[in-house]
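Entry for the shared binder. Reason: the reviewer on the internal report wants the predicted structure included alongside the sequence.
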Amino acid sequence: MSTLEFIKECQEKVFSGISISSEDAKKLLNIQDEKLKELAKCANEITREFNGNKVDVEQLNNIKKNACSEDCTFCGQSAFFDTDIDTYQLPSPKEVVNKAQKAKEDGAESYCLVAAWREPSTRDFEKVCKIISEINDKVGINVECSLGFLTPEQAKKLKELKVKRYNHNLETAKSKFPEICTTHTYEDRLKTLKIARDAGLELCTGGIIGLGETREQRLELALELGRLYPEEVTINILVPMPGTPLELQTDLPNSEIVRIFSVIRFLLPESVIKISGGRESKLEDSGEELLQSGANGIITEGYLTMGGNEAKKDRELIEKIGLQS
């Protein structure tokens, strides 16, 4: 069987509702460079079949920045590293509501509240709940949250507040994780995802590529995502932060980025696959190629510690390639 025939066979499995095997995924991820465009094309066809031409556009609000107690080696918000970024605590509900309203006017479908801490204290969680209630009452946009580790009671409260989706990234492969973080475990992250799922929240999870992991470890992460089957996958491309242990990490070749996005689409045909941090600075086209290689979502207007494209520019990008925002 030729490489192209194998790719098409895997695509037909997906179209028929049959999950590809881990061995299939491994072969897809390791195809020859000259066949990569065919892999991307087939991933794009899967995206269109299951998700249409819609691109999911999201905005973030980093509602509590810096001084996180965890030692994730990629993160500029960790209290372990001197990264010289500005810091602030939880803002007023009014301030967040105003930003959520602007996000809606910019065309964002969802608005994600992100906080830099291990887990919310009782007091901070109550403040976040107040903010969510205000957004629900005054804006009417899908609210998502990324608040670290949760208790079952907190997850149920978020569900009661009509939070649509909970983000908690695996960050990297289980085999790589101990090199990336020592203050909590990979299993801790899986536990939080289970708590969120059990409460009825949709899941958003993913990780960062370019941490120094091998291609095999990227496959390991992709297969774990396939097992979890989250409603949304978010894939960041490392932007090395000065002051962190990974500040000198070399960039991944573009071909490696296309490979992993395409294979994740074969594993998760129905999920939103979102190009997240690093899209503007590490991709020459801001993600145009990836939106035709399996991805069907972006984050616009910036990230947790760095800026991004203006919403208008991203809308134009999406329209340019014949998709809809």
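Summary line for the report: The first strand starts at residue 56 and ends at 64.
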